[in-house]
Design brief:
The protein is of the alpha/beta class. It is built from 12 helices and 7 strands.
Amino acid sequence: MGRGIATCLIAHGFTVVAYDPQPGQGQRTRKHIQHALEQLRAHKNVPATSIRNWTQRLQIAASLEELAPCWLVVECIPENMEAKQRLYQALEAIVPARTLLASNTSSLPITLLQKGLRFPQRLLGMHWGEPAQILHYLEIIPGEQTTSSVVRTANRFAKACGKQPTQLKRDIRGFLSNRMMYAMLREACHLVESGIADMETVDRSFRNDIGWWATIAGPFRWMDLTGIPAYATVMEGLLPELSNSTEVPRLMQDMVKRKALGIQNQRGFYRYTRSSAKKWEERWVEFTYEIEKLATRYAAE
């Protein structure tokens, strides 16, 4: 995700200082960014002039101290509250008080991440989509102490990156898209575990229904397009029957115990070879470019 964000920034004219605590990642990062930029140019998402001499706008940092000149730091470490708070405290000893700190957390409340900081008002959530260099998606989430000026700056930055920023009015765990997505994932697991349908059937049903209209319309627009009263009637009988479990689905627990990472290690809900996993990843990227063009064409006014 960090590499994708770096690609996005470079493609839109920003200078990037990238730091990875794992040693020896610099060469892999440059290779990844070069490939992603070439794809952006091939799909005409950015003009060739915008990525010319891009290597001059990428610095691979050897330590956190090299982030000192940055006016914005986007954190992309794993979803661990304590680790993130330790990182912010370390950054506060390095960067000026005016530097914005943004977390790419996908679910942790920003208000909790602000605890213990000297300047909590400059920290906010900046939740990117994957691939970050292609999607228009970017959530802006203020914590309880985030100032309005920081939120305005984040929105201007998002638009400068070619995004259509989604700004939340207040902090909530999981934010917008993940709350909707995880409700769907829970029900999908419930349907399989209950023996209603197998995974392939659930996937096919989702693709051929929600996946068909979701790019052009969100849930409220879809109800406008297809008739509001019917949804109220269905909700009355259906909502009590939906899963409201607070436990991680057994299906998910089993996958984690098997150390399944999906296409990353060819272990997932589906079977993969190294070749088929690579094809699915390439298919995903190409489809993302196609959807990006379609979404731009039908963007809401």
